[in-house]
């Protein structure tokens, strides 16, 4: 008799199972278009040159030790990370009404924000506040908010499968009918998984409704710099909402734009009405941090802080980010061109219109299964591909495979 | 307003104030109802210490080891491991949800012993966690979700301050069993046995594996044996917290004796481990959570559920510290150096205990300070009352927690005399 005799086997997280299946596949032509991590044109992980440089600096500095960071994290990391999101000259920063919590990656930042909101937003311990996530969205959004206690996590219309673009009318419609004070999780840029972002004008419309209906703004910013290659361009939506006077959260990840995936570097930026509100919010954030991880890991935060706060390193980082974004853009252009040249049925303009690491190909589950089983090309059941998995060496094979799949499988 | 209508019980985090008069100045913000949270009792001590300008100030709050110059100590084996790792030019790809395999294997081995039958049969699951706190958080939430037989967690009285909010936040009910005897500054063995004998079956009992925090009072092996028997009779679920393996006696295996004994006796324990103190990896957040299961099949099921818990918290754990720990544990030369360094840290603590007791005697104190020497590990439960603690802080700039706990790691040969002087002054 075991205490855990009744514990059921849980379904594995899809994206990791995909990677495992890819690993076990003996086909030499196999391509992994699953997990969202950057790859070079050789299909290899890329430790950013600026990161290697800063690591050497850290290793050589004997004055550094492994002492605990403060509960909320490394101060110079928090402030410089928030500046990246909000802009050097952000009025909110100048008005002293921005706070931040260093967290374990973007996931950790979402988690902290969610836990805080459940306890302190729209009453106390109000689990009934609806939380809206885009349809579709990063699958972990649902779990983060549900595990924080929210009982009502719902989709808002976002992706129009037919026209392969943003369902703006649906999105705005859901904003209009959402109960007041509902929380909306917005992707700051490079929407995961669709790669489809609202235009500036569309964001302005979203903001207008959210302000009028008193909806809570929770940005998820995991790809700043990665989408267009320019940090400021990619932060336009976040900054616009700040100018509109919102109190809001922005969960930032430095996994992709710094390539620091496994060091878990994230930041929850908090914009409030004034400094006093920020102070009290942070004091309660500390309580939540204390029962979850006590204080965050130092290595990654140090690395990012040194980079962001040193002019030459900052410039080099921006350059590294642009390198990654440019490669993705060139793969998009190349894939679309090849599909068009092959005369693959359907329209493929969305490949270059979409932005960031991911592309929602429009392949249906049967076609995805065919790609995996018959061509050893691994992608998510939703039809999402990671553009970083494409290289100049495999892009012909992938293009031909997509063509064959679309022609043979309906 | 939702705030007014809410009559729900508030969780341990923050307090709900009915005095909404203040809301009028804050009602243009979402956060008008957010109360200022009280400072953390333990970490708050360090922050107060930082603000103090006295040249004689002593930080005996947080349990972070200091060398005899009062400086943080980066272990040599850690520096060597870092150099090794740096030369390998590894990538930074995401770890698996359960963490670095090299680390979790050696972490389990360190606790259970290399020849452990549990390891051989693969009936444990060990996941990498965000140090000890992260491990307890995962454990508390795992029990809350899957240990439907009981909501009750029994903590020793007293226990580490953060245990209570961690378990409460996970939805468990906190209870206590007698542990510390203030009249002897030692272990209340009979009180503990008495309380354990009355615990409802299937309750969770938290045991500090060694170097009890905050008292430094550990059961003797014969006492552990009796506790193990009684716990089995009562059919309780054992949750071991081992944050100081190596730090207590200076010997890795001796400090893990209780954990290994319970397992040998057939207890299917859950175990939290931290490498913050024994490897000095505090800020790297290195820890492990282990569930000892019936068999390997069960361990797989439990593992799958632990991953489901971890993913929405932080997806996967940080690499740096785990890589350092794994390198040390798996490289014989470095492992040897580590054992020596842990031994050295424990020895310095023991020496400071002896010097403190001796100095108190020299100051002319008539109190019995034997417990200072008898207690084990980083902390000493001095027996000082809150008013005495307050005086010690205000008049002597000696910072410690209100319960009279001092971190011996903050004591050095140059300040032990001053400390004795201060303690004597407030207790004579």
Automatic annotation (TrEMBL), chain A:
Cellular component terms (Gene Ontology): cytosol
CDD domains: AAT_like
Key word Cytoplasm present: yes
N-terminal signal peptide: none
GO biological process assignments: aspartate biosynthetic process
Cofactor(s) this protein cannot do without: pyridoxal 5'-phosphate
EC number(s) given by UniProt: 2.6.1.1
Keywords from the named record: Amino-acid biosynthesis, Aminotransferase, Cytoplasm, Pyridoxal phosphate, Transferase
Subcellular localization(s) per the UniProt record: Cytoplasm
Catalytic activity: L-cysteine + 2-oxoglutarate = 2-oxo-3-sulfanylpropanoate + L-glutamate; 3-sulfino-L-alanine + 2-oxoglutarate = 3-sulfinopyruvate + L-glutamate; L-aspartate + 2-oxoglutarate = oxaloacetate + L-glutamate; (2S)-2-aminobutanoate + 2-oxoglutarate = 2-oxobutanoate + L-glutamate
GO molecular function: L-aspartate:2-oxoglutarate aminotransferase activity; L-cysteine transaminase activity; pyridoxal phosphate binding
InterPro entries per record: Aminotransferase_I/II_large, Asp_trans, NHTrfase_class1_PyrdxlP-BS, PyrdxlP-dep_Trfase, PyrdxlP-dep_Trfase_major, PyrdxlP-dep_Trfase_small
Domain Aminotransferase class I/classII large stretches: 29-402
The keyword Amino-acid biosynthesis is annotated on this UniProt entry: yes
PROSITE patterns per the UniProt record, alphabetical: AA_TRANSFER_CLASS_1
Further remarks about this protein from its record: In eukaryotes there are cytoplasmic, mitochondrial and chloroplastic isozymes.
Family: Belongs to the class-I pyridoxal-phosphate-dependent aminotransferase family.
Subunit structure: Homodimer.
Listed name of the protein: Aspartate aminotransferase
TrEMBL record, chain B:
Domain Aminotransferase class I/classII large stretches: 56-423
GO molecular function list: L-aspartate:2-oxoglutarate aminotransferase activity; pyridoxal phosphate binding
UniProt-annotated location(s): Mitochondrion matrix
A biological process term (GO) from this entry: L-aspartate catabolic process
Bilayer-spanning residue ranges: none
One Pfam family named in its UniProt record: Aminotran_1_2
Keywords tagged on the record: Aminotransferase, Mitochondrion, Pyridoxal phosphate, Transferase
Keyword Mitochondrion: yes
One GO cellular component term: mitochondrial matrix
This protein's record includes keyword Metal-binding: no
Record InterPro entries: Aminotransferase_I/II_large, Asp_trans, NHTrfase_class1_PyrdxlP-BS, PyrdxlP-dep_Trfase, PyrdxlP-dep_Trfase_major, PyrdxlP-dep_Trfase_small
Superkingdom classification of source: Eukaryota
Catalytically driven reaction(s): L-aspartate + 2-oxoglutarate = oxaloacetate + L-glutamate
Cofactor: pyridoxal 5'-phosphate
EC number: 2.6.1.1
Family statement drawn from the similarity comment of this UniProt entry: Belongs to the class-I pyridoxal-phosphate-dependent aminotransferase family.
Subunit and interaction comment: Homodimer.
Note from the entry: In eukaryotes there are cytoplasmic, mitochondrial and chloroplastic isozymes.
Full protein name: Aspartate aminotransferase
The organism of origin for this protein: Salvelinus namaycush
Lineage, uppermost ranks: Eukaryota, Metazoa, Chordata, Craniata, Vertebrata
Gene name of the record: LOC120047598
